[in-house]
């Protein structure tokens, strides 16, 4: 519920409050560059439209329910919102850039009159790796280096194996996941189209675009993201730690399936395919990067549309190739309302890639970063996102924090 990085901060603060067991009089938040980037400009839900790390940590202290994890601030009183607004204006929470090689790294220190507590999160948004009470370590996870942000072995994933699994998996095993994704992600899409969020991109796309299924796919997906980035408190089923990626790999598929009168089983299997293809690409990139995650998720969605139209394996390869030949240069400059525009652009590119692929037209593997086989192309783009854009990530943060050389 809400953009994942601010919620992770609220979760860590809520956990610190639980352990401290006295009134918190001061907070310190130490965050990696990517956490700062993805929290600086996004509205934190249930805070009265507040943004930033301070608001996230303070609302976690005042109203957090740690047991609800990424829905930690689902229930917030008017009094808590008013108090948060008051404390944000004061020097209650100090924010610091954390010196770390982890892209997802948070340390929240809560101080009471008598004691202090520190909660550390690494690699995944609710993955607590260390807790200190005063100067005593009361919990520390050992050997977490092995995770590297992925908590399962994903080496088995490939386009062909995902295709086979989506075709053959037992529907009873996956229906709870996909039904919830359909329910939640379409609910926030509809909210985005009926409510007042951001600049109303989804509404404008419907008003000005052609009356086609592709326009609807872009509009609903953009509206869902815009609502999420602008403080809507409706929950979203995420993918690879990102609500926007969860939205982008599912909403276009759901809209398309409905408009094309596909069966429930076709939709469910296609969502399995799309989600796994997103995970497959994001495994190489990591949860946070200067590489816009909408590219990976939209690429998966475009490939999923080819899948639901009974494309051959070669046509599926071609859809991915055409997408990754086009838009891997979109950078992530943090979570915010403009993510919706990047998502709409990415979905548009993925659908163009789908249309080309279904006509057996594909860009040659000798062009740019494309490789001869699709798994090598996915690996190459993953390498670009994880390693090639490290310096870009740093400079984006410098620009956002106004520490760049003008």
Short description:
This protein is 53% helix and 9% strand. With 406 residues, the protein is of the alpha+beta class. The protein has a six-stranded mixed sheet.
Name the shape in a single word. globular
List the uncertain runs. Answer: none
Q: What class would the helix/strand composition place it in?
A: alpha+beta
Q: What quaternary form is this?
A: single chain
Number of helices: 16
The main β sheet shows up as:
6 strands, mixed
Tell me how many strands there are: 6
Strand order of the largest sheet: 2-1-3-4-5-6
If you compute it from the alpha carbons, what radius of gyration comes out, rounded to the nearest whole angstrom?
21 Å
Fraction of residues in β-strands: 5-15%
Run of helices and strands: HEHHHEEEEEHHHHHHHHHHHH
* Helix percent band: 40-55%
**What's the pLDDT, averaged over the residues?**
94
- Measure the end-to-end span: 37 Å
